[in-house]
Amino acid sequence: MSFQQAIAGLNAASRSLDVIGHNIANAGTTGMKSSRVEFAEVYAAAAAGTNSVTGGMGVMVGNVSQQFTQGNINATNNALDLAINGNGFFQVTMPDGSAAYTRAGNFKKDATGTIVTATGAKLMGYPTDAKGNRTSSTLQTLVVPTGTVPAKRTSAISADITLDASAAVSTSTADLSKYSTSMTAYDAQGLKVEVGMYFQKTANNTWNVYTSVNGSTPSASTPFQIGFDGSGNLVSGGTQTLTLSSPNDPTQTFTASLDLSKLKQVSSTFTVNDLTQDGYTAGQLTSLTIDDTGTLMATYSNNQTQAAGQVALADFRNPQGLGITDSGYWFETTASGQPLLGAPGEGVFGSIQSKALEDSNVDLTAALVDMMTTQRAYQANAQTIKTQDQVLQTLVNLR
Fold first, then answer.
1. What is the pTM of this model?
2. What is the pLDDT of residues 242-301, one digit of tens each?
3. What region holds the Flagellar hook protein FlgE D2 domain (predicted)?
4. Parent domain of 16
5. 72 has pLDDT over 70
6. For the chain, what is the domain count?
7. Other residues' Cβ atoms within 10 Å of the Cβ of residue 335
């Protein structure tokens, strides 16, 4: 029986060395999770089906389990490098259409702009609107926008201006530029439409507002009137509609709302605090960022930023039940249970760190110590065989 025990010990030690060697070999593999061998004793009583212990038969490998502890996160300069800080797996679609899961976030773009792994698996996520709000719970492949964001015609203008309460009352339009400001709006083609606003105090707490479009004479426009109360708060004329025209064709007109509700009248110099409008010209993609919620934000040459989807994460009730295949992919099994899907930062899911990668969680120092310990165990079991052989030789040599 000593031979059987020693052989079992040699096999177990050899299997342990295989696992330790695999861990050491992948100490630099992104997102790799280390494994450990879990041993179990073997008794003859188990084979006989009795409760009495008749003698130990050695050892067996009960299980090889993966350890899903967090790996170190290191910064990179690649916007598509993603690290999960906490629970969860990236869900990808393999080239054969099957679902797989990985912690390796070293993604890249293919020829179509689709975000893929090094082996061509497609990263899955949620569709969003331009502001990053999720529009569906159905996963889709994530694609980096590569085209041109179209121009948007100005439809709303807002002004925050402080008017001088001590300004002189005037009815002359000879010089309207003393209290004036201008801004750029856009037509449907993204062409610039220059808009001017000119303020003339016609009575205490009452002002006329003249406008110009693309350099037109302000005095030729029909003014609208705004009024303030005794505290300098706007009480009338706060919402207006402007008629604008394209610089290419003045007959092509469009309207934009003008919000003057933030105007104030105090004894101060004329001050333009803020002018905003919602139009923009066409723009090309200049950069892509991914925030800690996994939302892809595309920035364009026209200073517009639009969301292009959200990375999805998957988790399992029993991650150690996942099956594993080449290139660091896991797949669902009966033991793991079905994937629980969500977004980074939601519930039990970890956050996303962009321009970073998660290192292997292999503790190289501990693995080297384990290797030496296992080597000693292998040598000890070999010595058991040698000793048993010497005993047998002694018996054989008896006369």
1. 0.77
2. 999 999 999 999 999 999 999 999 999 999 999 999 999 999 999 999 999 999 999 999
3. 167-280
4. 2-69+362-396
5. yes
6. 3
7. 12
